[in-house]
């Protein structure tokens, strides 16, 4: 759906809701939110959760991680699975998800920003739940299972074995679980300083295409999407790496009520079929 028709759709829903009786509006928590598949909000708005901006769930992410989050090139609008999930969560809480030009940060700055507080309520960024991150922030219950992947240029013949050499260069996104995996599993390349931590995965993929890097380690759903749907068909997945990761949403430890509200909203979104619908839309299947 284009931006214009989506706006039109939302306006129309608001108009329809405007025509409903008072009882049905109260039944919706007083929110003319539109499009929540008829399920009731899981949490009452503002009941103890601190928010950066009243009425809004202010989000940050790293917008170079399709199909989880990316910028629409023409409109500059935030798009993707996590964006739609944040909209559904906000709606369940009687809020609006707040995505602005300020929402885009480097991945490795997301946890520190949430910990510091004041800028955003949540980071939703295909972020794996790890013990290290749990020391810094709260992470929601898991919302998606994921694994890593080794991506090479088609026909280059690189393998896990050939890549562990001081003559090979492997790109990763700085501060990610893929970066950690590469450092552990390519010790020779790592000690030669050849695991290159970049700000974004798109630059890493371009670098593998042009031969600047011999390989890239990143989350499997992102690698599959980029290769199969987004023009990087000169690359291939050489290995699926079963790390058994799970994604969670980062919330400040100073905001336990918000964590509870987000977990309640996630549960409702799983129960009412929205989660399955979003996964089918962005991944062609449930993950
Ligand atoms: N899931 C990986 C991690 O949490 C990568 C996330 C990302 O690059 N957006 O480290």
Number of structural domains: 2
Shape estimate: globular
Number of helices: 12
Average residue pLDDT = 86
| Low-pLDDT segments, ≥5 res | 1-46
CATH H-level name of the largest domain... which superfamily? Periplasmic binding protein-like II
Output the strand order for the largest sheet.
5-1-6-13-7
**Topology, number of strands:** 13
> What is the CA-CA span between the terminal residues?
23 Å
User: Strand-and-helix sequence, N→C?
Assistant: HHEEEEHEHEHEEHEHHEHEHEEHH
CA-atom Rg in angstroms: 20 Å
Tell me which ligands are bound.
glutamine
Q: What is the helix fraction of residues, given as a range?
A: 25-40%
Characterization of this structure:
Residues 1-46 have low confidence and may be disordered. 39% of the residues lie in helices and 20% in strands. Helix 3 (81-92) packs antiparallel against helix 12. The protein is globular. It is α/β, with parallel strands linked by helices. It has helices at 3-18, 22-27, 81-92, 110-116, 131-136, 160-163, 177-185, 187-191, 201-210, 220-229, 256-271, 274-283, and strands at 56-60, 64-65, 69-71, 78-79, 96-98, 122-123, 138-139, 144-153, 170-173, 195-198, 215-219, 235-247, 250-251. The protein contains 12 helices and 13 strands. A hairpin with a 3-residue loop joins strand 2 and strand 3. The strands form 3 sheets. The chain has a 5-stranded mixed sheet with strand order 5-1-6-13-7. A 5-stranded mixed sheet has the order 10-9-11-8-12, with helices on both faces. The protein has 2 domains: 11-144 and 246-283, 3-Layer(aba) Sandwich (D-Maltodextrin-Binding Protein, domain 2); 146-244, 3-Layer(aba) Sandwich (D-Maltodextrin-Binding Protein, domain 2). Residues 62, 65, 107, 125-128, 173, 176-177, 219 line the site of glutamine.
């Amino acid at each position: 759906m284009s931006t214009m028709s989506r706006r039109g759709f939302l306006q129309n829903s608001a108009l329809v809701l405007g025509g409903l009786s008072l009882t049905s509006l109260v039944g919706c928590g007083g929110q003319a939110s539109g499009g929540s598949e008829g399920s009731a909000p899981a949490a009452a708005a503002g009941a103890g959760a601190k928010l950066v901006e009243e009425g809004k769930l202010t989000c940050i992410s790293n917008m170079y991680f399709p199909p989880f989050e990316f910028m629409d090139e023409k409109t500059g609008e935030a798009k993707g699975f996590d964006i739609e999930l944040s909209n559904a969560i906000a709606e369940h809480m009687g809020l609006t998800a707040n995505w602005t030009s300020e929402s885009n940060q480097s991945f490795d700055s997301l946890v520190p920003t949430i910990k510091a507080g004041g800028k955003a309520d949540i980071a939703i960024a295909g972020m794996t739940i790890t013990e290290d991150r749990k020391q810094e922030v709260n992470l929601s219950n898991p919302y998606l299972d994921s694994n890593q992947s080794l991506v090479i240029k088609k026909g280059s013949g690189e393998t896990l074995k050939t890549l562990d050499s001081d003559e090979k260069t492997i790109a990763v996104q700085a501060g990610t679980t893929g970066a950690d995996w590469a450092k552990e599993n390519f010790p020779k390349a790592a000690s030669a300083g050849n695991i290159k931590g970049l700000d974004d995965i798109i630059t890493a993929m371009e670098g593998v295409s042009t031969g600047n890097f011999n390989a890239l380690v990143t989350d499997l759903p992102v690698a599959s999407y980029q290769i199969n749907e987004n023009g990087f068909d000169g690359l291939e997945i050489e290995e699926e790496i079963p790390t058994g990761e799970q994604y969670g949403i980062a919330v400040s430890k100073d905001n336990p009520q918000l964590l509870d509200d987000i977990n309640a909203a996630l549960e409702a979104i799983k129960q009412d079929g929205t989660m399955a619908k979003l996964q089918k839309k962005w991944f062609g299947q449930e993950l």
